TrEMBL record:
Pathway the protein contributes to: Cofactor biosynthesis; adenosylcobalamin biosynthesis; cob(II)yrinate a,c-diamide from sirohydrochlorin (anaerobic route): step 6/10
Species whose genome carries this gene: Candidatus Nitrosocaldus cavascurensis
NCBIfam families according to UniProt: cbiD, PRK00075.1-1
Taxonomic classification: Archaea, Nitrososphaerota, Nitrososphaeria, Candidatus Nitrosocaldales, Candidatus Nitrosocaldaceae
Recorded superkingdom: Archaea
Gene name, Swiss-Prot/TrEMBL: cbiD
GO molecular function, one term: cobalt-precorrin-5B C1-methyltransferase activity
Protein name as annotated: Cobalt-precorrin-5B C(1)-methyltransferase
Segments of this protein annotated with the region Disordered: 1-28
């Protein structure tokens, strides 16, 4: 999830997260009427590349289809091939989306195998659909979603949907999925079952149908998603609540954060560490070595949203870890801290120095600094005591106000080598340094 944008200042570059490139057809429902998301959406628009922003505002960004929709299309095509015993190998199929709309997807490949010696003489069909995520930077864009369909003789009306290679196995609670099963989420599961009933209603009276979904590159792709952290091992998830991938969706990234918090809560943990990227997470793990992996959550720039969600879910202790650039923005009250969406306020940082009894000369140096990193260097060179702790204290105060003091907050500020330079906490009643 980390990024490196040469246009960013050094302090932002240290822990930057670009527009999310995770598997964006998230299962967790997020209301589009959520005021927090509307606020994030407005601020996120400032950070998009100009050509993307222009297309978004004009409604020209191309939508795509979720892994769940692709799996449904592949399963339907394979079932048609199985029923026709290879006489009909669809080049495209139309599937029904969760809200009742229709979508037609192309089928890359479809084969029928009769009397397979290696499979107890069962006939089966295998079809492949290539995921098209539209204009969204989804890591599963271009992935092959494969469905193998076969009969279950002697088991009328039974429809079994399972995963194969490249579809992850659930190992932790909090995802709404059964531990030990493949990560095929509820909506895609219903879509596939409905497609089977649509095509094979008469055949189901005599025998059942087994559908196996696989993703050849799924294990490799999963490393670029939150699945390992969420306890989904060995592949990606088959996801999607609407069947459609909306490009550059803030809701999808917010849902990813929410889902990570859900896992921590389901595992019985009441402490999480929210970091602004991979580097700050690496440093935080060294400072807090005993917390399990799923308690470390990369919130990116969505500071206010993340702490609110954590408090709403019952998390009791929230640790924020990062560098001076993004933490100074959080201290000032900027809720979405992307470098292109907001700027470090040198006047604010100078005022904090004044609170620490800085001289007027030092005050002016900070006020005229080039970057937040430059401010850090000036403060260190002048040995201004308590400065970074005070900034952290302001972060705690500000974030506590977003969640009405429902959890304690701790803020840890690192320099760019991983040394702690500032730290503060706020309980439900008071701030202390």
């Amino acid at each position: 999830m980390d990024g490196d944008d040469s246009c960013m200042s050094n302090d932002a570059n240290a822990d930057a997260i670009p527009t999310p490139t995770t598997n964006t057809d998230i299962n967790t429902p997020i209301s589009v009427d959520d005021p927090m998301l509307k606020e994030i959406e407005e601020e996120q628009e400032q950070e998009l590349p100009k050509d993307i922003l222009e297309k978004k505002r004009k409604g020209l960004l191309r939508t795509g289809y979720t892994t769940g929709t692709c799996a449904t299309a592949a399963a339907k095509a394979a079932l048609i091939s199985l029923i026709s015993r290879g006489r009909e190998l669809p080049a495209s199929v139309t599937v029904t989306l969760p809200k009742g709309d229709k979508a037609t997807l192309q089928v890359k490949e479809c084969i029928f195998v009769a009397n397979a010696d290696d499979d107890n003489d069962r006939e089966y069909a295998v079809c492949t659909v290539v995921k098209d995520a539209g204009d969204d930077p989804d890591v599963t864009h271009g992935a092959e979603i494969v469905a193998r369909v076969e009969w279950l003789d002697g088991e009328p009306e039974r429809i079994e949907v399972t995963g194969g290679k490249g579809v992850g196995i659930v190992t932790k609670p909090g995802l709404g999925l059964e531990i030990g099963k493949h990560a095929i989420n509820p909506t895609p599961m219903r879509m596939i079952i409905n497609a089977v009933r649509e095509v094979a209603s008469e055949h189901l009276k005599q025998r059942g149908v087994k559908v196996t979904i696989s993703v050849p590159r799924g294990e490799e792709l999963a490393k670029q998603t939150d699945n390992p952290r969420l306890g989904i091992v060995g592949g990606i998830s088959i996801l999607g609540t609407t069947g459609i991938v909306v490009p550059y969706s803030t809701a999808s990234f917010a849902a990813s954060i929410k889902q990570c918090i859900d896992v921590a809560v389901a595992m019985g943990d009441d402490t999480i560490v929210l970091t602004t990227g991979g580097r700050s997470e690496e440093f935080a793990r060294q400072v807090i070595p005993n917390l399990p992996d799923h308690c470390f959550i990369q919130m990116g720039d969505f500071v206010a949203y993340s702490v609110r969600q954590a408090a709403m879910k019952g998390i009791k202790h929230i640790i924020i870890a990062g560098f001076i650039g993004k933490l100074s923005k959080a201290a000032k009250g900027i809720k979405q801290t992307h470098v292109k969406g907001s700027h470090v306020d040198m006047e604010f940082l100078a005022d904090v120095a004044k609170e620490c009894n800085a001289s007027m000369e030092l005050y002016e140096q900070i006020r005229n600094a080039n970057t937040a990193r430059h401010v850090m260097e000036i403060v260190m060179a002048n040995n201004l005591q308590g400065y970074f702790d005070r900034l952290c204290s302001k972060v705690c105060e500000r974030l506590s106000s977003y969640m009405e003091d429902k959890a304690s907050i701790e803020c840890i500020m690192f320099d760019f080598e991983g040394k702690i330079i500032g730290r503060a906490s706020k309980s439900m009643k008071e701030v202390y340094i």
